Amino acid sequence: MKVVLVTGSNSGFGLNGALAFARNGYRVYAAMRDQSKGNLLRRLASDEGLEIRTETLDTSQPSTFVECINRINSESGGIDVVVNNAGISRAGVLEDTSEETLRTVMETNYFGPVLLSKTLLPSMRERRTGHIIMVSSLSGLAGLPCDFSYTSSKFALEGATEAMRHEVDRWGIKVSLVEAGMYATNLLGERKDGEESIFPHYYDKESPYRDLMEYKWRRTKDRLPDAFDPKVVGDLFVKIANSSGKRFRWTADPVAKNVVSELHGHDDISRDHYLRKISDTDWWSEGKALPTELEG
Ligand SMILES: NC(=O)c1ccc[n+]([C@@H]2O[C@H](COP(=O)([O-])OP(=O)(O)OC[C@H]3O[C@@H](n4cnc5c(N)ncnc54)[C@H](OP(=O)(O)O)[C@@H]3O)[C@@H](O)[C@H]2O)c1
After folding, report:
1. Which of 55, 87, 112, 139 has its CA 20 to 30 A from that of 178?
2. Is residue 26 annotated as part of the catalytic site, yes or no?
3. 259 in ligand 1 pocket by Cβ < 6 Å?
């Protein structure tokens, strides 16, 4: 039985991934930073008669990784697949983002997955097998405004993942990257509590970027009903883990597929044009006033 470790398993992609792996015969270690948030996963697993083991793992605390991995190794003889899924998003432009936030997002979205993979690599190399799956985002391919810290962390993750893939293939270790469009998860946490709270910090402050953030918020809200079901990504994790590993970048939905194909087929000038088109922020770059109507 193959052993999989999924980080950030108490909600969204991670929760759906843990369930999908269990349904497909994997021995699942569902990691989360706070066990008390794991009740939904435990309940859903028990409803389906699935066995899922939970582990405590905070991806921003690399000093705790070895202990968790040793525990799994001694219980199950090694980890075959890791899904580096845990992540956070903090909306905001660079000028409005604190150094602390920049570092927290980088610790969670970049250093966490990279250092967890680094900790796992020696045993994967020794066993000449293993699969590292990194969960990126279209924000890791496109530098769009308003998500500065998140975009930076996912770009870094993309580069690290691509480099790692070519470093470890010699030992039969597979490395894959997941690109996804917009899904109905807790990533923007406050979304479900009401419209004013999507970008809460912008409602109390005088920011020179307030119009841009407000427009971005309105646009996000307008598109929320079209958000995809995270179950799709959970199932995709299993498909990737069962694959030969030849394919590097996996797109979860038609939006991701479209953006990836557009971005890989453009020179820099047309790429700029395309990015502004998909973020619908030409008006901002051209110094125009906040549009009253959404476009595109
Ligand atoms: N939803 C989307 O539209 C979308 C699109 C592209 C990519 N992604 C990526 O998909 C991944 C999963 O996000 P999601 O959409 O499923 O959002 P989610 O429902 O918010 O899930 C994120 C998970 O990561 C966990 N997490 C955050 N910081 C952590 C830490 N330091 N240590 C351990 N766990 C931590 C969260 O735990 P807590 O509950 O404790 O915070 C939660 O379980 C992220 O990497 C995200 O960037 C999402």
Report:
1. 55
2. no
3. no
Residue of 26, 29, 110, 150 marked active site: 150
Residue pLDDT, tens place only, 104-155: 999 999 999 999 999 999 999 999 999 999 999 999 999 999 999 999 999 9
Burial classification of residue 225, based on how many CB atoms lie within 10 Å of its CB (0-12 exposed, 13-18 middle, 19 or more buried): exposed
Closest CA to 253 of 185, 188, 178, 186: 178
Ligand 1 mean position, distance from CA 7 (Å): 9
Give the contacts of 101 (CB within 8 A, at least 6 positions apart). Answer: 90, 92, 149
CATH 3.40.50.720 fits 3-194+228-253, yes or no: yes
In this structure, the number of other CB atoms found within 10 A of the CB of residue 113 comes to 27
Looking at the whole model, is its pTM more than 0.90? Answer: yes
Q: Is the CB of 184 under 6 A from ligand 1?
A: no
86 CB less than 6 Å from ligand 1? yes
- Of 170, 158, 70, 178, which is closest to residue 114 (Cα–Cα)? 158
Atom of ligand 1 nearest to the CA of 57: 33
Q: What is the DSSP string of 137-159?
A: -GGGT---TTBHHHHHHHHHHHH
Q: What is the pLDDT of residues 186-231, one digit of tens each?
A: 886 544 444 444 455 555 567 898 888 888 888 888 888 899 999 9
Tell me the domain boundaries of the chain. Answer: 3-194+228-253
